[in-house]
Prior knowledge:
This protein is of the alpha+beta class. Helix content is 34%, strand content 15%.
Amino acid sequence: MAKMSTRSSPAKNPDHNSPLKSQGLTKNPSMELCRLTDSEIGFTYPFPVLTHGFFTLTDLCYIQAMPMVWRVLYTLEHIIELEGIDIGMSEMSQLYNLVSHDSYRYLFKSKPQ
């Protein structure tokens, strides 16, 4: 699978105020938390254990997951929470294959039973 990474700028001195820093878009950068919230499915970053484990194991970026992946993860997280059932990556791998959809986007394909 493709691993997405960030690239560092070859700036000579990264401590100097860059044009982006000097725009003052953030008032207190060290206090402003990164939030990823989807009101339709109800996920907020940091994600629950199963979802975090999925992205850690697959090395996918969040944006590479098609909506179906998010719905499955959300559903499984609710089953874990409401029913107390222990579901992990091994159970997910018995139910689904992770397949490429297009341009480094991925979705789950149900395995035949």
